[in-house]
Amino acid sequence: MTLRSITLGTGQHQLETSALGYGAMSLAGAYGAISEADSLELLDHVARREVTFLDTANIYGDGESERVLGTFLKHRREEFVLATKVGIEKGAGVGKRRARGDAAYIKDQIDQSLRRLGTDHVDLYYLHRVDPETPIEESVGALGELVTAGKVRAIGLSEATGDEIARGHAVHPITAVQSEWSIFARDVEAHVLPTCARLGIGFVPYSPVGRGLLTDSFDAKALPAEDIRQNFPWFMPENLPQNASLLEQVRAVAARLDLPTAGLALAWLYQQASALGVQISPIPGTRTAAHWDELQHGVDVALPGEALAELDALAGQVSGDRSFDPRWVSGGREGLLPRS
């Protein structure tokens, strides 16, 4: 599986990386247990598939994801573009944490992340969530100071609104914006992606297969009680039957095209991004090599117009918001998630 490269951002802060990255939240047990040995084996498999972009965050498993990546990268750090995040303060679990983006917190957390990752710098450092009590200009200014200090090569924002992206970019060049984007979650197309296209900012879609919903393996009747998805509206009992029926429509399109459903979901993203004029590197996460190969199968697939039209009609029929709290994501603060 030859994997092409893309460029996130422009100018001196741009990053060249693979067109598909690995999202390492799964290495911290968010979707079920995985041993360190299995995590390292999976990362090696991903690397053999020519993936050079690895994404994590300080909050994933309270640092466990970063620690595992640090072990993997010990003798091969320069082979990868490494991204991590700051800006969610540890709390009592999903929905009970708070965003924190003050300069002192950002500067403290980078050193802790670097220690866990076993490196003296990260290539891309995101503000994980915009702190409603701290101006975005202060948060981005602090991130920019870390670039000057040599601890960070480039900076990014996650789940920022179009306005917040533009304000932050005026303080220091933003290389990438990370937000949820998939066949089922499309609010970023209204303001966020046009802003990225206008400013030459790359885009990194997380949950490109809807937290596993847009796959052949998802079973609506077999979601473990401890699974993090139980906290998200799409997967709640009142919404899941409708969303599972929409999944069957996606699976039918994939079957007609002889594609894995996850591969179809990624192929849709790349075509949509091209039409909107943005460079993307999605970061799906998985705990198995077989699932990874299904995902990567969709990187360079061109979908016919009738398939695109069929898929485009589905987002408006999804039941429930993509987040447990609309204020936690860009679309909620932009008034684009009206169903909560």
TrEMBL record:
Biological source species: Nesterenkonia sandarakina
Pfam family, one: Aldo_ket_red
GO molecular function (one): oxidoreductase activity
Protein's UniProt name: Aryl-alcohol dehydrogenase-like predicted oxidoreductase
Residue stretches making up the NADP-dependent oxidoreductase domain: 20-314
GO cellular component terms attached to this protein's record: cytoplasm
Keywords, sorted A to Z: Oxidoreductase
Cited InterPro entries: Aldo-Keto_reductase (IPR050791), NAD(P)_OxRdtase_dom_sf (IPR036812), NADP_OxRdtase_dom (IPR023210)
PANTHER family per UniProt: AFLATOXIN B1 ALDEHYDE REDUCTASE, ALDO-KETO REDUCTASE YAKC [NADP(+)]
SUPFAM superfamilies per the UniProt record, alphabetical: NAD(P)-linked oxidoreductase
